[in-house]
């Protein structure tokens, strides 16, 4: 399964994508940073981005790479393909990756793509069409939802994931933003700080709060035939 995570503004896409990968049932999913603005996780944890997205993209163009040669294990327990922090380097690597068959880099295990903020003309846009489901992350406040309602999400497989309290019914929310609501996530500062490398990792950190809710969502996606790899 290939799951894309995006937002229309700074909506916590990276934190949610990391929590989803960490909480995936049976095994942690692979997380690929594919944000054209540049990767965050390497900088948060003081890790190099090579090997990473650039080396994976180049290897995909020349054959079928060993994905393990391009991943980094993050301290909170997930394997990640890290992107360079700079926009030019990240954008170039994403463009190369989008031109290759996803079977070359998403065939061995569930894969979560962190596409960051979706902007017009983004080199990550083609990756949306490759995904089995597109999870659009937004705050539950009125302003965040208004911005989402004005955005154009180019995928009929888009589903809304809200973060924090929502002041609308599910029916009103779907009418407002035009994207079906699939999950409501709690605002979880503790987990966010672990993912950002700002807090020590507890033994059961991924069993409560955001990771626990993300695990329920992941299990739901696995059960739904509509989101099985085509």
TrEMBL record:
* InterPro entries per the UniProt record, alphabetical: P-loop_NTPase (IPR027417)
Q: Write down what this protein is called.
A: Cellulose biosynthesis protein BcsQ
